[in-house]
C-alpha cells in the first residue's frame, strides 16, 4: 500500500516476538531483516537497507546449506541496493552470485525473475540497453506465466521496459508498456502509492516525446 512507516512499525513488533520464541541459530531470524531491508529500500534509506539485507545474509550463511535459494534472493536484494547507490560493479557481482545459485538448485521461478529484472535495471542504468532488454524479457516471461495479469509486480517490469524504450527512443513501445503499468497500478494500488506516481511521471515524459 506504500505506507512504509506503518510497515516498519509492525515489522519491528513482529521481530521482538520472533526473537523471544526462536533459538539464536534459527534461519527464520533472517526474515525480519529481509523485510526491514525491503522497507528501508522503499523509503530510499539505502545504507539501512543494505545493513539489514547483509544481516539477513549472515544468518542464512550460518544456518543454511551453502547454495540455498534464500541466499540467492538475498544476494540479489543486496545487489539491487548497490545499484540504487550507484555501485554498478558491486551490484553485478552480487546478482551473479544469485544467478550462480539459481542456475544450479531448484528455486522459486519468481525469485529467478527478480534477479533477472534487477540485472536488467543495473544494465539499463549503465546504458547497456541490449543486455538490459535481454534480462527484462527473461524476467517478464516468468512473471507473465506465474502471476495474475493485474499483479503489481508486472507493473514494475512494464515500467522498467518503458524507461528502457524511452531511453532508446522507441516511443510507441515505451507508451505501450507504461500504459500497462499505469492500468495495473490504478486498479491495484492506492492513488497516493509512490509506484503509481512514478509511473504517471514516466507516462508524461513519454507523451511529451510522441
UniProtKB/TrEMBL annotation:
This is Kinesin light chain. Gene3D superfamilies: Tetratricopeptide repeat domain (1.25.40.10). The keyword Repeat applies. It comes from the Eukaryota. TPR repeats lie at residues 30-63, 72-105, 113-146, 155-188. InterPro entries: TPR-like_helical_dom_sf (IPR011990), TPR_rpt (IPR019734). It holds the Pfam family TPR_12. The keyword Acyltransferase does not apply. Keywords: Repeat, TPR repeat.
Amino acid at each position: 500500500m506504500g505506507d512504509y512507516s506503518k510497515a516498519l512499525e509492525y515489522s519491528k513488533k513482529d521481530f521482538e516476538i520472533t526473537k523471544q520464541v526462536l533459538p539464536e541459530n534459527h534461519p527464520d531470524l533472517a526474515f525480519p531483516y529481509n523485510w526491514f531491508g525491503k522497507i528501508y529500500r522503499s523509503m530510499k534509506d539505502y545504507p539501512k537497507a543494505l545493513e539489514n539485507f547483509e544481516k539477513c545474509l549472515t544468518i542464512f550463511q550460518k544456518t543454511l546449506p551453502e547454495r540455498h535459494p534464500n541466499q540467492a534472493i538475498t544476494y540479489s536484494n543486496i545487489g539491487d541496493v548497490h545499484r540504487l547507490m550507484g555501485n554498478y560493479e558491486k551490484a553485478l557481482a552480487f546478482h551473479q552470485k544469485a544467478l550462480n545459485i539459481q542456475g544450479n538448485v531448484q528455486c522459486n521461478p519468481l525469485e529467478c525473475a527478480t534477479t533477472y529484472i534487477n540485472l536488467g535495471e543495473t544494465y539499463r542504468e549503465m546504458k547497456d540497453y541490449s543486455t538490459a532488454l535481454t534480462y527484462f524479457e527473461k524476467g517478464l516471461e516468468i512473471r507473465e506465466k506465474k502471476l495474475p495479469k493485474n499483479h503489481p509486480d508486472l507493473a514494475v517490469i512494464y515500467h522498467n521496459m518503458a524507461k528502457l524504450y524511452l531511453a532508446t527512443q522507441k516511443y510507441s513501445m515505451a507508451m505501450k508498456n507504461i500504459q500497462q503499468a499505469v492500468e495495473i497500478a490504478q486498479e491495484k494500488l492506492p492513488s497516493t502509492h509512490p509506484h503509481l506516481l512514478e509511473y504517471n511521471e514516466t507516462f508524461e515524459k513519454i507523451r511529451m516525446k510522441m
